[in-house]
Amino acid sequence: MKDAKTKLQTAYYSLLNGNVTIDGSAVGIGDKLNPPDTYPQVIISDWTDTEESDKYHLGSEVTIRLLIYDRQEQDNGSRADLYSISDQIKQIIKARPDPIDLSPNFKNVWTRLDNEVSLPKDLSDTHITFGIQQRFRHEIEQL
Predict the structure, then answer these.
(1) What pTM was computed for the model?
(2) pLDDT per position as a tens digit, 118-132
(3) Measured between alpha carbons, how far is 126 from 12 in angstroms, rounded to an integer?
(4) What is the CATH number of the domain that holds 103?
(5) How far apart are the first and last CA of the chain?
(6) How many domains are contained in the chain?
(7) DSSP line for 6-40
(8) CA 65 to CA 43: how far, in whole Å?
C-alpha cells in the first residue's frame, strides 16, 4: 500500500491556511511551533496509521493531531478565541461535500473528530497560554 500521510498533511495545510481567522487576521498554520510572539497558532502535529487492507481493497485509518495555542495577557485571559479557532477547524475539516482531496492515488472515505482535549494552561509572569488538542480520524482508501 502507498503512504497517504504526506498527502493528508498537505491537504490539511491547504484547507486551513488562510481560512482560520480571528478578528479578520489569519491564524498561523504550520508543522512546528512558531516564534513565541505569534499567537494564536495551529500546529499540524503527529499522526497514527493503521492498515485496514484486505484482499478486496487497500486502505488505512489515519489520524492527524492538531495543537491549537493562544496566549493572552495574564489579567485578561480568555479562551474565547481558542474556542472560535477550534470550531472553525471542525467546520472546515468536516465540511460536506468532503473537502479533503487526496486524488489521484487515494480517497478519503470518511472523517470524524476522534477526540478534543483542553491542554493545561501555562502561566508566566505576564501571560497565560491556552491550548486545545484535536485528533481527526480518516478512513483512506488507495485507488
Answers:
(1) 0.91
(2) 999 888 888 889 999
(3) 33
(4) 3.30.2000.30
(5) 10
(6) 1
(7) HHHHHHHHHHHTTT-EETTEEPEEESSPPPTT--S
(8) 8
